[in-house]
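Section 4.2 – Deliverable D4.2 (structural model, holo form)

The reporting period included a commitment to supply a predicted holo structure for the target in complex with magnesium ion. Inputs used:
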Amino acid sequence: MTDLLRIEDLAVEYKTRRGTARGVDNVSLNLEENKTLGLAGESGCGKSTLGRSIMRLVPYPGKIVNGKIDLLLHEDIVFPKGVIEKGFVNIMDLNEEELRALRGKEIAYIFQDPMTSLNPMITVETHFQEIMKAHDPDIKKEEALDRAQEILDGLGISPERITDYPHQFSGGMRQRVMIGLGLALRPKLLIADEPTTSLDVIVEAQILEEMAELKELFNLTMILITHNLGVLAQTADDIAIMYSGRIMELSPTEALFEDPLHPYTQALLESVPDVSKPDKKLSWIPGAPPDLVDPIPGCMYNPRCKHTMDICKTTQPGLIMNDEERLVACHLFGGEK
Ligand SMILES: Nc1ncnc2c1ncn2[C@@H]1O[C@H](COP(=O)(O)OP(=O)(O)O)[C@@H](O)[C@H]1O
Ligand SMILES: [Mg+2]
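Output (structure tokens):
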């Protein structure tokens, strides 16, 4: 298997009046083609910032201050003002024109809130037509319509509903439309940021299932961002657990659920409800995620950790690989910065 994406030493800073927050702090990871990587962690730990960095769409006042984001292109990307040659391309080196050619076509991003991302004044069909025309001005209307309907069909939306307006759809259907629009240009990499967070659990399960089917159909590689670890159990091949802008653990999904290494991963899993164990006592993690404007020395998780040692208060642990080739950033497993 080859890597589609290689991120190296990525750092993103938000300069605010209170000071500078490192939303993403020295993140490195590789993502193989056709795999799904889950990004999980509490709110504010840097998941969206990491996801949006890959599109170079970090919102103001955020700025990527360091790192490489290499994406594998199987074919040249030809656009009106030039060509991006196939092979690995560092997204950090691209100019705005080149980024526009890449966005949607190679990488698509599905935002969390479908209502603010859909235009209430135009039909679903027009949404699809606009996206497809922007990348391929010569595309025939019928071809765009066919492609849109094929995608919507995969998401359980009947073809005739394509002439409806966003408000005529339920929340779950609108989210499906968003996912469909993300797939309109047949991207290789789909980044879905909390795609089911605002939905009830039944609709959530259906949509995750449909996404898994579309992933196979379109040979997608996916990054699925969620604060809910349970969502990733069935969908992700690997899971990266983030805390304070850093990756604390990166493991294959099964291993992570069976034998979580990092104390933070363990605490997160203890707070996931399990319907098969109704007697299990749910716990939560005391304290709150750290203020990234005012970082503490050592491991950022140490004030909430059950296993804090002296070294945890002074030295930040780096990600190390254990004997099973799992990655963990914790002094309990040795390693140093
Ligand atoms: N617009 C912003 N202004 C200032 N700081 C921000 C902004 N957005 C994010 N941050 C900082 O980046 C951190 C990570 O945010 P984010 O990536 O949105 O986390 P998540 O998606 O995991 O909830 C936040 O805790 C905050 O410190
Ligand atoms: Mg987010």
